UniProtKB/TrEMBL annotation:
Cellular component per GO, a single term: primosome complex
Record-given protein name: Replication restart protein PriA
Protein origin, superkingdom: Bacteria
Catalytically driven reaction(s): Couples ATP hydrolysis with the unwinding of duplex DNA by translocating in the 3'-5' direction; ATP + H2O = ADP + phosphate + H(+)
PROSITE patterns per the UniProt record, alphabetical: HELICASE_ATP_BIND_1 (PS51192)
Keywords from the UniProt entry: ATP-binding, DNA replication, DNA-binding, Helicase, Hydrolase, Isomerase, Metal-binding, Nucleotide-binding, Primosome, Zinc
Length: 630
């Protein structure tokens, strides 16, 4: 006798559909379903006990299955981030069902190569004894070695480990450090590896050959049986937050697993995010690891003079003559952020997005860094036809050109997303720099991502004021975290100099060697109507027709206003902060509007959003706990 079940198709845009199965199946079971003349995977949701008044196609058992922790997390993602089950389950890589039961091989006990210092041993003991602990360790304090000892403990207990990092931090250095201790038990997972390599990793993960996965946020969705440890390195990094539906935060998902399963979750950062720090401090979950593992010191030079100041050129000259290396940070890739007219002030903007285009002299083109639209460099102002167009803000390539003119024999590399387009290019550039085949590395925020440069004696930071002056409630935090992380790239084993070009020396100076002091300052002075004091949700509306996007936003705003006014439940405490055009009003040819909601309760926001979804016939973007309000 056939039974009926509601199935969420995976990998396609479709609502749940009803199918017949030859036997009852549990929620979360993977099925092979026919849809539009092809067979795809779907996940079983609700059994249908009532009589179905129409003919249903037959669904078959799949050769794949989700692990219990994958089902647990998929259900939570759908509920918390207000997305469909097709979207939430679609994030996960299922496990191949086999007849044989594989167990982790019990080799000789693993012993990390480097012994821990007393401070590191104390930190390790705290991490082992605390639920969801935060390792707040200064740059160069030896956090990675503590992670290695943690991993060894869990592998020796017959468990697997997951080491999550922002994707750009997945460097040869991390691979080598893990493989030096754990050998071929380590698998590396990120978006740049081939489909063939991914399949090889999945096979080795299932048969027990691979026991450690080091990867970007997507590695959290792999079928890792007997998972005992999750490490979230650089937990402050925005890369853990997905920018497409569902807009999950991998760090927060790992913490959810840490609270609802027996998996040990450890977070680490030299610049922890304020929200996580505030919660962890309240619950006494922080271990503060101070100082550097190596005896080295930094000196800081603040300068408010023009870009190529004589003092900066002299510092670069001294570093080069001493056969040491320099790194230079700029917030802008390519040559400049934009071209603007000296006569009328008009900027050259993308025809599909309401943002300025970036000048790329090497390609003789203007490129939109949002949608990729490319056009020739204009000779006249698009508004007043003046030929007086000038560039605004220096970029990586122009700085490299200036250094080449000042120091013709200096070997200069560029480390930004225009030049580092593949993982192999990333590996080669970092290897060349570590092998001292490059004397200077110029880059954008990619430079701050935990790379270990032992011979760097000079760190130059240009344009940090652009980050500090953005109109976002986290501007102070972003700027201070970025500056601290970049500064940490110099003087790792020997003394180093950090040169900072800024007009805000008085703001940065008190916190340069004490990030915890900055966190205390920010907790005191950040407005109480922003996280970590409240919860936020952002609703986005986009349409090619401006009036349509505006109409959708207005309809949702009216529904929310009525709900808040009439409600006697916790949804009455929701506040509509704003309903307006986005700061970048047009993107990818679509007009964009948003509604920002605020409440002390995340559940209240979720209830209200789910209510709105039932009331309207159109879809809209939902971002719970957005990292930015611009």
């Amino acid at each position: 006798m056939h039974t009926f079940v509601l199935v969420a198709p995976l990998g396609v845009s479709s609502p749940p559909l009803t199918y017949q199965t030859q036997s009852p199946c549990e929620r979360g079971t993977l099925l092979e379903i026919p849809l539009k003349n092809k067979h795809i995977l779907g996940v079983a949701l609700t059994p249908q006990t009532q009589h179905i008044g129409f003919e249903c196609k037959l669904a078959y058992p799949s050769k794949y299955e989700f692990l219990p922790i994958q089902k647990l997390l998929a259900e939570f993602i759908a509920q918390y981030y207000c997305c469909s089950f097709s979207r939430s389950y679609g994030l996960f890589t299922p496990k191949l069902i086999t007849d044989t039961f594989t167990t982790q091989a019990h080799d000789e006990p693993i012993t990390p190569i480097l012994a821990l210092s007393q401070a590191q041993n104390d930190a390790l003991a705290f991490l082992n004894a605390t639920q969801n602990p935060l390792l707040f360790g200064d740059t160069g304090s030896g956090k990675t070695e503590i992670y290695i000892h943690l991993i060894a403990q869990h592998l020796n207990n017959g468990q697997k480990a997951l080491f999550l990092m922002p994707e750009i931090s997945l460097t040869p250095q991390i691979e080598q450090r893990l493989q030096k201790v754990f050998g071929d038990k380590v698998g590396i997972w990120h978006s740049k590896i081939t489909a063939k390599k991914k399949q090889e990793i999945l096979t080795k993960l299932q048969n027990g050959t691979i026991q450690i996965i080091a990867g970007a946020r997507s590695a959290l969705f792999l079928p890792i049986e007997n998972l005992g440890l999750i490490i979230i390195d650089e937990e402050h990094d925005d890369a853990y937050k997905s920018q497409s539906t569902p807009r999950y935060n991998a760090r927060d998902l790992a913490l959810y697993l840490g609270k609802h399963t027996s998996i040990k979750v450890v977070l680490g950062s030299a610049t922890p995010s304020l929200s996580l720090y505030a919660n962890a401090k309240k619950e006494h979950r922080i271990y503060r690891l101070r100082g550097q593992h190596f005896d080295s010191k930094k000196s800081y030079i603040f300068d408010d003079t023009p870009l190529y100041a004589p003092s900066l050129i002299e510092l670069v000259r001294q570093t080069y003559k001493a056969h040491k290396q320099s790194i230079v940070f700029l917030p802008t890739r390519a040559h400049f952020k934009t071209l603007f007219c000296q006569e009328c002030g008009q900027k050259v903007q993308c025809v599909f997005c309401s943002v300025s285009m970036s000048l790329h002299l090497d390609k003789h083109a203007m490129i939109c860094h949002y949608c990729g639209y490319t056009q020739a460099i204009p000779k006249h102002c698009p508004k007043c036809q003046s030929q007086n167009l000038q560039s605004q803000r220096v970029g990586t390539q122009e700085f490299a050109k200036e250094m080449a003119e000042c120091f013709p024999t200096m070997r200069v590399g560029i480390f930004d997303r225009d030049h580092i387009t593949t993982h192999s290019k990333l590996q080669k550039t970092l290897k060349d720099f570590n092998d001292h085949k490059l004397d200077m590395l110029i880059g954008t925020q990619m430079l701050s991502k935990g790379h270990d440069y032992h011979n760097v004696a000079l760190c130059v930071v240009i344009g940090i004021d652009y980050v500090l002056n953005t109109i976002d409630y986290r501007a102070n935090e972003r700027a201070m975290s970025l500056l601290t992380q970049i500064s940490g790239r110099s003087g790792r084993k020997e003394n180093g100099i950090v040169y900072i070009q800024t007009l805000h020396k008085d703001f940065f100076t008190p916190f340069m060697q004490d990030y915890e002091k900055f966190l205390a300052y920010e907790l005191e002075y950040r407005p109480r109507f922003y996280p970590p004091f409240v919860r936020l949700a952002n609703l986005g509306f986009a349409h090619k027709l401006q009036h349509q996007a505006l109409s959708q936003m207005q309809e949702v705003r009216e529904i929310l206003e009525t709900l808040i006014q009439k409600s006697t439940t916790q949804t009455k405490n929701i506040e509509i902060v704003g309903a307006k055009a986005c700061d970048i009003e047009r993107l990818y040819g679509k007009y964009r509007y948003n509604i920002l909601l605020r409440s002390h309760s995340a559940n209240a926001l979720i209830q209200a959003i789910m209510y709105v979804k039932e009331c309207v016939k159109f879809s809209f973007e939902i971002d719970i706990d957005p990292l930015s309000t611009i």
